Hints:
By secondary structure, the chain is α/β, with parallel strands linked by helices. It is 36% helix and 16% strand.
Amino acid sequence: MKLVIAATGASGAIYTQRLLEQIDCVANEVHLVMSAYARQVAKQELEDFKIPAAARRHSESDMNVPFVSGSARFDAMVIVPCSMATLGRIASGASDSVLLRAADVFLKERRKLIVVPRETPWNLIHARNVVTLLEAGAIVLPAIPSFYSRPDSVNAVVDTVISRILDQIGLPNQGAYRWGEEKGSTKTSRNKN
Ligand SMILES: Cc1cc2nc3c(=O)[nH]c(=O)nc-3n(C[C@H](O)[C@H](O)[C@H](O)COP(=O)(O)O)c2cc1C
């Protein structure tokens, strides 16, 4: 698959990190764009933000990348975490950075754009911008973990969101806890005790 992973300055750099760890960046073509605030938040939240060697990293300002053109075929773009600032800019049609232009292109080409906002509580502007993105065809997948699999670590909590992202992209998701399929799950079965 050909994928764009974008990170912005919302809290939750660990979501970007866990997603990059769980995507095979050799078998898949993975392009990474991080906003300036994403880099700042990653420094604040993680000891060491690791980018897989095979991932192709791009600056926010260099439009000389394939995924800002509708002519280049890509399978999905994930913005994780997505700040309300970036979500609002996309909803307004702004496309004056690589990240925003890519989101704009994915929407206009009806390609899969998965937006993972992290903010609470929401104001009415946030809610309206989310509706605008939904109407434009985006998948809005908030960074809201679930607990019915009884996650026992921060990574396990984060992975309840990552699992939903991988499913939406259509990538293998071996460790996923699936309700009603406890027997197949080795790491998160509710019946393990
Ligand atoms: C430590 C830290 C945590 C932040 N957390 C959030 C957040 O959870 N959600 C959000 O929408 N913005 C958050 N912000 C604010 C954004 O970083 C800010 O709005 C920025 O302009 C986003 O720019 P970007 O979307 O280009 O990355 C946070 C900022 C800092 C410094």
